[in-house]
Amino acid sequence: MNYLVLARKWRPKSFSEVSGQDHVVKAIQNSLKQNKVHHALLFTGTRGVGKTTIARLFAKSLNCDTGITPEPCGKCESCVSIDEGNFMDLIEVDAASQRGIDDTRDLLENTQYTPTVGRYKVYLIDEVHQLTKEAFNALLKTLEEPPEHMKFLLATTESEKIPITVLSRCLKFNLKKISEEQITQRMKEILDAEKIKYEEGALSIISKSADGSMRDALSLLDQALAYEDYELSENNVIDMLGLIDNKYALSIVQFILNQDSELLREQLDGLDSKHPNYNDVLDNIASIAQEIAYLQVLDASKVDVQDEIIELSNNHSPELIQLIYQIAINSKKDLSLAPSAREGFTMAVLRMFAFQLSDEQSVENRTPDTAQKKIKKSEPLTNGNLETSIISSKNWTNEVSKMDIRGAVKQLASNCSFDHIDNHILYLKIHSENEHQMIDRAVDGLNSFLINQYEEVNKVIIQVEKENGKTLAGEEKIKNEEQIIMNESRASSDPLVQEYVDLFDATIEETK
């Protein structure tokens, strides 16, 4: 049985099949087109991103029977021999096992001989950073001025360990991690060619687990196919990798924000029965919080996310979402200190549940009377008569603070100032620095709320101005600054603080 793993079977045979390294491929192909090829190239990057693959394709382009070409034919004797690993003029060296000066000297002794069958003799040294200092020194002269028939291709995952004298003699190409979308697309092409059924959700999970490495992704794909008798489903991939469905993390976030302690307890019990990696669950919670925060700044219609995420972004304040994110990522380092990972995770969730400001409770926790309360109709308006209007420049910020709105809508209202009301049209102003908050979702939400809650308002117009008006956000900023000044004043006059200043010859730094 000669089964060839997917990572080897589907190794790119041409530059067009290389995923995620267009910046490197383009530079190499341009040099081949112009026949201006450097004698020493260094490929760096993390594992499985295509360093050795691109080096072999470069060797094929130099030795293709059709001539030096930016895209090898893949059919001639030279191309086939390189693909099969038996081309005599492509010498591959593993620096991890042949790292000494004697190995390097033996290697360099053969450089004087012309190619046997190809156009160029190509030395491909993998993991070159593992060569000894003496081996690097022996390589220097030949690397700088090799014979015309010689090309050196070096590959490494740790370029910082290579002496600067070697780096200065090479063209360095930094290969980047391959995106999840590109890995998924490549796996789809392979599975379609292999005629294997699959669920796209399963491919997304494998792509994320691969962390930018195509080889890791294809190895996981091989493992998943063996696990499922050569069909691919999302649930089985989750079981194979020991992961937890993202719905658990999303439910936990929902129950935290909605302050539903009973459902939160049930969800934690159900999660524990799955024996999860609690670090991964905290990562999922942090990712959900990031998605919510992202939506609170950008228009939801331009982002492909779940409806539950959109609902959470509309109903909860950005400050609360930021708090949950910080607790999630900071709690990861506490898991190793907790009596058990489960207890550490549970404590992190309880901390998220407890650290919510009283004025940011979710709409569901309010009584129907409070949530649906309608402002009484004002007296008839006469061309913007502010004294008879319920909403005016005098009480605008107070009204905003009491409005039953959340998220991006609340942020927009807090940064708007009252201008005037004319013929049932409410005119608001917003400073040009805050214009980015006027996303369609927030504007529509604020308009609907004001029209529904204030009977004297039939239409709302928000105008961008270069001057600041009286806003709730502005008032809160002033209060914060005043509090800081007051705290500093108290600190400077505190007898205990003064005693420490005198004792340690210290100074009091001002908060900026």
How would you characterize the overall build of this protein?
By secondary structure, the chain is an alpha/beta fold. It has five domains: 6-174, 3-Layer(aba) Sandwich (Rossmann fold), CATH 3.40.50; 180-241, Orthogonal Bundle (Helicase, Ruva Protein, domain 3), CATH 1.10.8; 246-365, Zinc Finger, Delta Prime, domain 3; 386-470, DNA polymerase III, tau subunit, domain V (GMP Synthetase, Chain A, domain 3, 2-Layer Sandwich); 474-504. The chain contains 23 helices and eight strands. Helix 6 (133-144) links the parallel strand 3 (121-126) and strand 4. The model is unreliable at 358-389 (pLDDT under 50).
Return the CATH architecture of the largest domain: 3-Layer(aba) Sandwich
Shape summary = elongated
User: Runs with pLDDT <50, length 5+?
Assistant: 358-389
Rg over C-alpha atoms, rounded to the nearest angstrom = 32 Å
Q: What is the CATH superfamily of the largest domain? A: P-loop containing nucleotide triphosphate hydrolases
Number of helices: 23
Please give the oligomerization state of what you see.
single chain
Helix content: 40-55%
Q: In percent, how much strand structure appears in the residues?
A: 5-15%
Measured distance between first and last alpha carbons? 71 Å
Mean pLDDT: 83
Strand order of the largest sheet: 2-3-4-1-5
Q: How many domains, as an integer?
A: 5
CATH class category label of the largest domain: Alpha Beta
Number of strands: 8
* Secondary-structure class: alpha/beta
